[in-house]
Design goal:
Number of strands: 9
Distance between the termini: 62 Å
Helix content: 25-40%
Strand order of the largest sheet: 5-4-6-2-1-3-7-8-9
Radius of gyration: 20 Å
Strand content: 5-15%
Shape: globular
Number of domains: 2
Number of helices: 7
C-alpha cells in the first residue's frame, strides 16, 4: 500500500511540475505584455510591416532583464519558405516533418541576416514572436534548436537537432561542452566547415533546467558573425516541434511573404493568403508582405505592405 501511495505521489508531482511549467510560460508572456506596448489585433497591413521592422531591428539577447527568456519569444522574424500548391496547405507540416517531428525555419534579424532563403524559396509565412501572438493563438510550439548556418537537418536524428548520420561530432553543442560562439567556431573549423559536422545549440523548453537556452540561442546568433561572409550567403536554421495538421485557425501566422523582385513569389503568397482566407473560421485575413533581403552585410532587410500585393484587402473581409 505504501509503495502504491509513493508511486501515485511521484506521478502527481511530475504532473504538477509539468503543469506549473506551462503556467509559468504563460505568466511570463502576460508579464512581458504588461510591460510592453500592446500591439493592435487584428493588425492592419501597414501595422504588420511596422511590427516586422521593429522585430527585425530588435537585437535583444533575451526578453527580460534576467535574460532567462530566449530572444525568439519577443524579437526577430521567424520565417519558413514554402511553395504554394492546390494539393496541400503551406502552413501544414510536410510528410517529412510529420515523420521527423521537426519543422525547419530561419531567423532573420539585423544581427542575423542573409541574402537568400533555403532552397531558393521566394515566398512563405512568418510566425509572430510568441510573446506578441494574439490571444487564442497556439504558441506551445517548442523552438528546439538553433544552427548558425544551414545544417541539413533532414539527415539528423532527434527531430533534426541531433547527430547527422555518420558524424558523431555533430550532436548538440552543449552536450559537447560547446557553449560560446568562439567554441562553436573552433569546432566548425576543426571539421573543415562541413555542415554535416556542425553542432546546433539546444534551445528546447524541455532542457531549460539543464542548459541556459537563452544564452544558447544568443550564442548561435553570435556564431554567425564568426563566419560572416559564409553565413550571409547561407541562412541559419531553427527546428520547431511539428504541430498538428489543420491548425490554421490557431497558428500564430503573422504574414505571408514574398521576396522582392519575384513575380512567382508574389503569386504564391497571394494564393496562400487566399487559401488561408477560405479555410479559416470567419475568413481570417493575414497580409502579404514584401521582404527585401539585404544585398550586403552592411545593409538591412525591409518589410513593405502594398494593397496591390493582396488577393483580398482587409476591408473586404466577410
Amino acid at each position: 500500500m505504501k509503495k502504491t501511495i509513493l508511486l501515485l505521489s511521484v506521478i502527481l508531482l511530475g504532473f504538477m511540475c509539468q503543469a506549473t511549467y506551462a503556467r509559468s510560460w504563460d505568466n511570463d508572456k502576460e508579464q512581458f505584455q504588461a510591460m510592453s506596448i500592446k500591439r493592435a489585433t487584428p493588425n492592419t497591413g501597414p501595422e504588420t510591416a511596422d511590427y516586422l521592422t521593429q522585430d527585425y531591428m530588435n537585437a535583444a539577447k533575451g526578453c527580460d532583464d534576467d535574460e532567462h527568456l530566449p530572444a525568439f519569444l519577443c524579437s526577430g522574424v521567424m520565417l519558413r519558405g514554402t511553395n504554394y500548391s492546390a494539393s496541400y496547405h503551406s502552413w501544414d507540416p510536410s510528410p517529412q516533418s510529420q515523420t521527423s517531428g521537426g519543422v525547419s525555419f530561419s531567423y532573420l534579424r539585423k544581427d542575423s541576416k542573409y541574402n537568400k532563403l533555403a532552397y531558393g524559396y521566394v515566398n512563405g509565412f512568418v510566425f509572430d514572436p510568441f510573446f506578441y501572438a494574439p490571444d487564442g493563438k497556439y504558441t506551445d510550439i517548442d523552438v528546439m534548436c538553433s544552427f548558425p548556418i544551414d545544417a541539413s537537418t533532414d539527415n539528423r536524428v532527434d527531430k533534426g537537432c541531433g547527430e547527422y548520420t555518420g558524424h558523431p561530432e555533430s550532436t548538440t553543442c552543449q552536450s559537447q561542452n560547446i557553449f560560446t560562439a568562439d567554441e562553436w567556431y573552433q569546432h566548425y573549423v576543426q571539421y573543415s566547415r562541413q555542415h554535416a559536422s556542425e553542432c546546433g545549440f539546444d534551445t528546447s523548453e524541455a532542457d531549460e533546467d539543464t542548459y541556459n537556452i537563452t544564452d544558447g540561442f544568443y550564442q548561435s546568433i553570435l556564431s554567425m558573425a564568426k563566419i560572416a561572409t559564409e553565413s550571409f550567403g547561407t541562412q541559419n536554421e531553427l527546428r520547431l516541434a511539428t504541430w498538428a495538421q489543420g491548425m490554421q485557425d490557431t497558428l500564430p501566422i503573422e504574414a505571408f511573404f514574398y521576396i522582392s523582385g519575384s513575380s512567382a513569389g508574389l503569386s504564391s503568397a497571394k494564393n496562400d493568403q487566399k487559401d488561408f482566407y477560405n479555410n479559416t473560421t470567419g475568413n481570417m485575413w493575414v497580409p502579404v508582405i514584401k521582404i527585401t533581403l539585404p544585398t550586403s552585410s552592411t545593409g538591412n532587410a525591409t518589410f513593405t505592405y502594398s494593397d496591390s500585393d493582396q488577393w483580398v484587402l482587409q476591408s473586404k473581409r466577410k
